[in-house]
Amino acid sequence: MNWISDVVRPKIKTLFKREVPENLWIKCPDTGQMVFHKEVEANQFVIPGSDFHLRMSATARLKAMFDQETWEEITFPEVPLDPLKFRDEKKYVDRLRDAKAKTGAVDAVRVGAGAVEGAQMVVAVQDFDFMGGSLGMAAGEAVIAALETAVARHTPCVLFAASGGARMQEGMFSLMQMPRTTVAVRHMREAGLPYIVVLTNPTTGGVTASYAMLGDVHIAEPGALIGFAGPRVIEQTIREKLPPGFQRAEYLKDHGMVDMVVHRHELKATIARLCRLLMKQPARDDGDAIARADAPAEAVAG
Amino acid sequence: MDAAVSTMRSYLDFEKPVAEIEAKIDELRVVADGDVNVALDEEISRLQARASKTLSDLYAALTPWQKTMVARHPNRPHFRDYCDALITDMTPLAGDRAFGEDEAIITGFGRFRGEPVCILGQEKGWNTETRLRHNFGMARPEGYRKAVRLMEMADRFGLPVISFVDTAGAYPGIGAEERGQAEAIARSTEEALGLGVANVALVVGEGGSGGAVAIAAANRVLMMEHAIYTVASPEASASILWRNAARAQDAATNMKITAQDLLKFGIIDGIVPEPTGGAHRDPAAAIRSAGAAVAAALQEFAGMTPQAIRKAREDKFLAIGRK
User: EC (chain A) (predicted)?
Assistant: First the structure.
């Protein structure tokens, strides 16, 4: 500390403080372009121009999926709080409380049921803002509740994954969510219902190594980081630079791990169409579509 | 185990008190040099008693970090030792029929107490050459896909599956990621959960993360007394939680990774007792008690229908953590 820091720093701080809470402008992580936040929000958190897909909150995601932005919130069983009485630099209970306050959610996964282009569906969304979307007991119960609700109501289930992996603070209880959620995925398969996973930025660790890689269809958002081990761990292990685009959505498609990379604006329509196909439901604009599909056949028959 | 390795005594840091006593015994033996010396013999047997008392006291109160050291002890029996002693007619089968053969997981069919079974075992290797060959027990997607192939066969032929778990985790590498490490693990877990035959998993050393779960989603999950089972290795946990891998001891302590804690939590189903001073001091005894525990676990499911076996397994996992 000297006289410069005493005199100058406080001024700089107030300057920053004025700007940050209002959060009016968002910088594109890709191009550095500054965009007005309302514009980004109206564009489903995709930067207009660069098409960079920003992270989306669970609420925004559910709003974007369901017709008229309305859905029934699916609840899940309460779980024991802090089973390990864990603390690292901070107590786990404090971290949880902060995350709940920040997101207004119970835990990292929210589940809704409602209509998507008129068809009933269960949608589970993992919120990266809640402790990195980490998979703990509560998130595990939410995923299980989503899949079991879909089985009970005989509807498809769509899961938006976003996670750094296991909730370390819950130790082995967290790891056990891998087999537990997989049991629910199996029930979905036995019921013959579509389970669609949308991999968003980022999805790694135990989440990818369980329910997020067991979908009937895997859709990835452009540019999303998807993998088992994080890039930092791999670099440390092999002591080599990673190839460009490694573990990105497009790279995964090239390697056969996802079915398609879909722009966020096209997600709802793509998912709804897939579900109609797999559920043997009529096409959306049925009249026109059937007429068009039938036309050449009639010509041949004639 | 190589003769050179098994006769060479190696001590872990916390075993220093035992090392000192045993060094003294060795000294006295040199002094005695085969002569009959009653006083010396008495002293030696007194020291031996003290050494074994010290050892059993130490091992009765191992800290989680000490258990981590024991679980990774170079002389600790590995999959290979368990397989040699417990399985007859072992016939390893190789390859995932898609990409390659991964010796981090050895799979095959053999006989356990006379009955045909499917064997899945993670092998870390026991010297430089074999450690490289088995990739230190860190499997790639091929290993898990091979396990899926074998489990499918076991299910079709109605043979129980015994898994020996010993891995720091699945291998984090470029090729492994390219070929879908996450998907391979997920499919293996799914296959294990869907088996209509009983499966038993025994964590013999280190049960590391998803790479272990993939073959440990079993009707009965057992752990050797001093084995550990973790969501991520203590080193990895420390680097995630404290951004400092050197805090591995803290991670091991806080994360409840011992067989005793996990049995209390209802995450595992049983503990296999190890001889005094750990499995590496008497591998044959450790393997014998493991064999008895696995046999008892399999016996619980004898005569059950595939549906009942599957349902019991699913219910067991769903109940974990629920009040």
Answer: 2.1.3.15
